[in-house]
Every structure is written in C-alpha cells, then in structure tokens.
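Methods — Computational structure assignment.
A single polypeptide chain was analysed. Its primary sequence is given first, followed by the predicted tertiary structure written as structure tokens.
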Amino acid sequence: MNPKSFHLISLGCAKNTVDSSSMAQLLSRSGYRPTDNPNRAGVLIVNTCGFIGPARQESLQVLEELAIHKRKGQLLIAAGCLTQRYGAEVARQVPGLDGILGTRRWMDIVQVVQELRLTGHPQPLYHLPDTPTVGGDEHGAQRVAKQGGSAYLKIADGCRRPCAFCAIPLIKGTAVSRPVEAILEEAVSMQSLGVRELNLIAQDTTDYGHDLGMRDGLAVLLERMVQAAPEIDWIRILYAYPGYVSDRLIEVMAEHPQIVPYLDMPLQHAHPATLRRMRRPANIDWVYRTLEKMRRALPDLALRTTFIVGYPGEDEHEFQTLLDFIREIRFDRLGAFQFSFEPGTTSEPLGDPIPAQVKQARYDQLMELQAAISLEKNQSFVGKTLDVLTEGQGDGITLGRTYRDAPEIDGMVIIEDELPVGEIVLVRITGALTYDLSGMVATNRVILAEP
C-alpha cells in the first residue's frame, strides 16, 4: 500500500464524473497517484450519488464494501451528494469512515486528506461548509472529465428551479454559473488534447448566465465557444429546461455545424395537472410549438427526454395522456424513472400513494412503447452514412456513437472493423436494433484530429 496513492470511485451522473475528475486533478497535483487497485491505495474515495433511493443504496453498498476490506493505514472518505445531505446518517451506516466531504466543497479534498493524515480522527472528520463551489473557488482545477475523444465540461452548478420531487437544490444549492472565460479556456485546452466532442453539462444548461446578468447566456456562450475552439467537431447540449429553449438558442444551433442537432430536455410528464403537482412548467402548447420550431430549423434534430411515472396523483387518464404524447412527438431517445419518495422535498406531503406494482407496470408499458419508436427510427437509417466517433475496439469490431447519441445514456454503433479510438469515421449503416445500429466503414475516410 502506498500512502501517496488514491483509488476514486465515481457514482451517479456526468456532473459527478466531472467533480471526481477535478478532485483527481488536485490530488495528482499534490503528489498523489491514482491506482485502479483499492488494496494498493492509501486513500479510498467514493464520490456518492444521493439523488434518489436506489442511487443512495448503491453508494452505501460501495462504501460498506470498501470499509469491510479497509486495511490498516488506509483512509476511507465519502464525498458527493449523499454526504452533503445525509452526512451523519452515512457515518452511522458505514463504520470505518474517516472523512465526510460534501459535494459543495469537492475542491477541499487535499485539505481533508492532509488533516486526516496529520491529526488522525477517532470519529469521522466532517467537512460540509456551504460555500459556493464554482467560479473563483475551484483551486485551479479544470471542470472537465475527458474520456477518449469525448469530454464533459461543467458550465454551472446548483439549481434554482422549484421542482417538487427533486432534492438537488437542497444538496447543491442555488444555480451558480462559471465565468465565460474559464469555460472557454477549458474548451481550448480540450481541443489541444485532441478531444472531438464537448458535452456541456449543468443541472440546467439553459439557465446558464442568469446569475451573471446575461440574457440568453447559453446562446452567448456557444457563439463564443465555436469561435474559441473551432477544431472541436461536436458540441452537445445536455439538460435543457422546458420554457427556456429560446429562439436565439435555436438560431445559434442551426447556424453552427459544430453544435450537433441534439437536445436533451427532461420534460418529466405531459399532463398539465401532473406537471403542476410537480411544480414544473405545465404549458404543453409551448412544448409543441418549440419542438416544431426546432425540427423546422434543425431537420436532423435528435430529441432526448426523461419522464417520471407513478408520481403522486397520477391516475390512468394522466398516464394515458403521457403515452399519447410520446406517440405523437416520437422522441429519438427517452429515459424513464419510477417516482422515488424524497423526504424534505416539497412533494413530501403528497406521500407515495401509488403501489409499486402499478409504477412498474406503467414503466414497462411506457418503455415498450418507446422501444417500438426507437427501433422504427433506427431502421430509417439503414443504408445511410453517418459520422461516428469511435470509443473502443476489440474482437474485430469497433464501438462508437453518432451525433444522435450522448455518451453513456444513448445507443451505440457497432462497426465491423477495428479502428483507431477517438476518431470520427464515416460509416454506412447496415443494421438496426432497438437502441443500437451496426455498419461498416463507408470509405477510407477517417477525420483525424489536428496535431
């Protein structure tokens, strides 16, 4: 075991992945070295997720497993969303924890490790101040997570939306945007490393710049970014908020080929009464008008959304309205969750009255409907050629993604050849599965990154 090494496990969403990458940067800068083997690490860190019940359970199980096998001299630190909200409870459930670090102070990871090494703590060290985490308080860490030819770039943290079911504002605090220049500097840095795709993330990307006094802040940022980093092939927008996809944003997306025609806009439901109980935008007419406007301006638009089934008060009529909406809009990508009761949220008084078996049945019915839509859409690409960003290869095949596929959450393209990773290849689509495509290189053309 090397006391100057660390093993970091990142759970949850891409926003957590960026926080984990930033912590790893700070540790490496302080002389610590990463290791994939927890038995060899002097510091064990789990960046937890606390968004919904199943994610909390996964985080606790990982921590408990590490605690059971923790060796003498090793430090075990629980960081992230779960500890921000449930720090004391986590410490009670996981004997052997040495440190509790909240998600709002991820940048203090080195300080926490050093304090534990210098002083020792018979009880867990709690480090949970509420100081904002973005802007000039990031200790010089880049807010990016690079994975092959792709990278996530965090443009803001926290959220000011009032969604009744969501604990994120309780965990992260209100929305705080990062300075434009800091974001652009990181985009240029990723370009210099040969990154082909930037995925812009925040709890709500369309709220970017509101706290900085910017109007249409996301559109402004994108216009600056395509100028600052012209060699980035794909710029993708994730996590837009209904009602805040502006005409200017649509125009900027349409005018700049670097910004892929892809939008992830979690709608959560389609019945106005359900949305009002959720404290979400309930103007479904806006959704229809905006999606029609986007599809007119961006004919190749790929739409992703997320829905919750089994929200308190959702009756059969409301659920049927959701199914009808999905049939009509025909989303390219769709995720769904069964409602998870979250104490402390404004939905708490509504309880969790819908039986688990009803939630499961509705989830299954919704995903069966979407599977048919997804297969039909995929079949429409057979015989066409698409640019594919390669991500991995072996056993005679290469896995990659098109502009229609965000990392980790969407489909893949299976290419019948072993190709360099991190390049963009023109592929002729020869087969379609429910969520994935297959194909072969259309020509010898490989779009190489600039040296």
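Note: The CA atoms of residues 2 and 24 lie 16 Å apart.
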